[in-house]
């Protein structure tokens, strides 16, 4: 398949990463996530009349450094996720951004989208929408969304935007395309 997108998902533990991509892939909200469940997914979607295969890599906070670096090297785009109920998780996104920049070296910055998760949890909000947007602008990220996996708000939109950005950034043919994408 020519239209393959490899996307890495990074963020602190319990920020809502798994709920975000499971809601996207399986259309279900998982209240209590078991971290031993498989963390790499594939999903075929249609964006702007074209079919794309997404390979999604969820990187957990405690993953081995070599595994993180490998996912950074093979990914064509990244989601940085934080919880609006945990200001520390937003700071960790900045640290992860620095790690991505360090590992891609002088290459052109790939698309990176910041996602504030758990937006349905207003009563426990610690990070304002404006602060999330300011961090995205400060890091010169491609876009910023707040989402709620529970309410299925802003779940599909970031993925569609990521596909558009990857193909705008890399042209129609992707340099990092792998044989595994062609199996479909």
Could you describe the 3D structure shown?
- With 184 residues, the chain is an alpha/beta fold.
- It has a single domain, classed as P-loop containing nucleotide triphosphate hydrolases (Rossmann fold), CATH 3.40.50.300.
- It has 5 helices and 6 strands.
- It has a 6-stranded mixed sheet, with helices on both faces.
- The radius of gyration is 15 Å and the shape is globular.
- The termini are close together.
In summary, what is this structure?
The protein has 184 residues and is α/β, with parallel strands linked by helices.
Give the full name of the CATH homologous superfamily: P-loop containing nucleotide triphosphate hydrolases
Percent strand: 15-25%
Note the gap between the termini: 7 Å
CATH class: Alpha Beta
Architecture in CATH?
3-Layer(aba) Sandwich
Give a short account of the largest sheet.
6 strands, mixed
Which fold name corresponds to the CATH topology? Rossmann fold
**Radius of gyration, CA atoms, in whole angstroms:** 15 Å
Q: Residue share in helices? A: 25-40%
Count of distinct structural domains: 1
Q: Please report the total strand number as a whole number.
A: 6
> Uncertain spans, ≥5 residues at pLDDT below 50?
172-179
- Give the overall shape, derived from the CA principal axes: globular
Structure annotation, total helices: 5
Question: SSE order, as H and E?
Answer: EHEEHEHEHEH
Strand-pairing-aware structural class = alpha/beta
Widest sheet, order of strands:
2-3-1-4-5-6
């Amino acid at each position: 398949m020519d239209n393959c997108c490899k996307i890495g998902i990074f963020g602190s533990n319990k920020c809502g990463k798994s709920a975000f991509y499971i809601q996207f892939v399986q259309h279900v909200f998982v209240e209590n996530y078991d971290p031993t469940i498989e963390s790499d997914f594939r999903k075929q979607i249609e964006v702007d009349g074209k079919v794309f295969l997404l390979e999604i890599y969820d990187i957990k906070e405690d993953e081995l450094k070599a595994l993180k670096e490998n996912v950074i090297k093979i990914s064509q785009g990244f989601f940085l996720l934080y919880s609006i109920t945990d200001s520390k998780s937003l700071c960790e996104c900045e640290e992860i951004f620095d790690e991505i920049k360090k590992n891609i070296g002088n290459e052109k910055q790939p698309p990176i989208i910041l996602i504030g998760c758990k937006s349905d949890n207003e009563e426990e909000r610690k990070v304002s929408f404006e602060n999330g947007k300011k961090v995205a602008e400060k890091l010169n990220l491609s876009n910023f969304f707040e989402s709620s996996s529970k309410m299925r708000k802003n779940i599909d939109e970031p993925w569609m935007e990521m596909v558009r950005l990857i193909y705008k950034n890399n042209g129609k043919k992707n340099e990092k395309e792998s044989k595994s994408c062609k199996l479909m």
